[in-house]
Amino acid sequence: MKNMSTLGSIAWNIFLITLGSFFYAMGAEAILVHHKFIIGGLYGSCLLIYYKTNLLSPGLWFFLINIPLLIFGLIYLSKRFFYYSLYGVAMLTIFTEVLQLNFAIHDQLYAAVAGGAICGIGQGIVLRSLGSGGGLDIIAIILNRKFNFGVGKFFMIFNVILFAFVVTIYEPDLVIASIILTFISAVSLEQILTLFNQRKIVYILSNKHEEITKTITQDLHMGATLIDARGAYSGTKKQMVMTITNNLQVKRLEDRVFNLDPNALFVVENSFNVIGSGLGKRQMY
């Protein structure tokens, strides 16, 4: 059973990396190169090298520059991460070499939005796996693990430097469109990463906390925690119920709570990183 589970995990990660690499390559080949856009990250740097030298291709430049980065990933992270990331780099290179697409989006703004959305979705799908698409992902993860340096902060610094250079050699319209493209890509990536991770933390204050707890655990089959609370004005001791649920269940929970106690206080918070107790697994590279 353990071997079957391992094989299933490997197949799932390979599927995510393959699908994500295909989407990213499709956005790059069908939109980016036709408008000479620069996207953030290492692939954007490879596009810039290609535009200025007309040597090789963006995909081949990406593969060559990734070789030393993958070696660092093997040294500082894990063999599993190395092999998955090597596969991701290879797939992106192959797809960008094979795909000959042109979505024929002539408006520069529309092209920037569409290209950013497609590339961001692709990158987000890859990062749902236990590997990466190579490039800055490897450096960002190493810096985060070794020095607790924020992944988003690293990408922001790199992209600021990249676009500070781009603005000196390209006309303003293309630079602005490329920045819009990169922003849309980052937003799309974030949406993909949080799509299945989003959770709702619910706090319930009610005099009928026992009935509410019973409904949560027995009827809705969810976990619950009782927290000692006290009113700041009255000083009355109360039991606050805390539970974690998802977007689908939170409305059902709300209906059950207010059917039991119309005067209950029902507080909902968003959370995107709940790990443990069957709610989410820690991503180990």
Please characterize this protein's 3D structure.
The protein has a 4-stranded antiparallel sheet with strand order 2-3-1-4. It has helices at residues 2-35, 42-53, 58-76, 79-98, 108-127, 136-147, 151-166, 172-195, 209-219, 247-260; strands spanning 199-205, 225-230, 237-245, 265-271. Strand 2 (225-230) and strand 3 form a beta hairpin. The protein has 2 domains: 2-195, no CATH class; 199-271, Alpha-Beta Plaits. The model has no long low-confidence stretch (mean pLDDT 83). The protein is built from 10 helices and 4 strands; from the N terminus they run ααααααααβαββαβ. With 285 residues, the protein is of the alpha+beta class.
Q: Could you write a compact summary of the structure shown?
A:
This protein has helices spanning 2-35, 42-53, 58-76, 79-98, 108-127, 136-147, 151-166, 172-195, 209-219, 247-260; strands at residues 199-205, 225-230, 237-245, 265-271. It has 285 residues and is an alpha+beta fold.
